[in-house]
Amino acid sequence: KSLEAVAYGLTDKPLLQQSDCFVFINGRVRTFNEHLFCDAPSGLGKEFQGAVTAKKMREVLPKLKGDEVEVTQENGRLVVKDGIDTVWFHMQSEVSLPTDGVEMPKKWEPLSPSVAEAVDMARKLVYDDTSYPSMTSVHFTPDHIEACDFMQAIRWQINLLTKEPFLLQGKWLKAVSKMEPTKFGLTRAWAHFQNEVGLVVS
Question: What pTM was computed for the model?
């Protein structure tokens, strides 16, 4: 579940080092495609560190039939055993995913449970023509979320506990609507959402 939760931050065409990988570090798994950063508890120990190409993992792991899996790191490989089959993936030992610019908030604010629904409705409405930037984004303000195209508009009254309004591109907000966020934080260049299990989407 953690892998699929962070899969929104992957890219098929690597624009950054390891942007097509699941990156394991400090007991968490993360992805980053320059626009979207996803980070979740991995369920693995903090000593488990490295990067694995995501495409092969997403193809193979759903085919395992066992109820429980054991994951180990052996000789440059990520090894997965389910009691029936054993599969392994090449693992880059060095983490080079450039996430240093993604500044985490020092304080998180609580969010209304209806934020996920509001974001989902707004993101589906935005225009997909990048020549109209304001029409491709969802507008977040201290007291509402809104979006429009050339035919219709939506505004959802909600308290975000933020002083400044901001825009987020609608095409990256599916991850936010699916994660059911419970907390929110802003930094200089990023908006961050967190849910009850510790998944962060920025």
Answer: 0.91
pLDDT digits (tens, 9 = 90+) for 126-146: 887 777 777 899 999 999 999
Q: For residues 154 and 179, give the distance between their C-alpha atoms in angstroms, rounded to a whole number.
A: 21
The rounded Cα 164 to chain-centroid distance in angstroms is 23
In this predicted structure, what is the pLDDT of residue 178? Answer: 92
Neighbours of 39 (CB within 10 A): 27
DSSP secondary structure string for all residues of 122-169? HHHHS---TTSGGGGEEEE-SSEEEEE-SS-EEEEE-----SS-EEEE
Say which residue the tokens 């054991």 belong to: 70
CB atoms within 10 A of CB 192: 21
Assigned token pair, 82: 């389910």
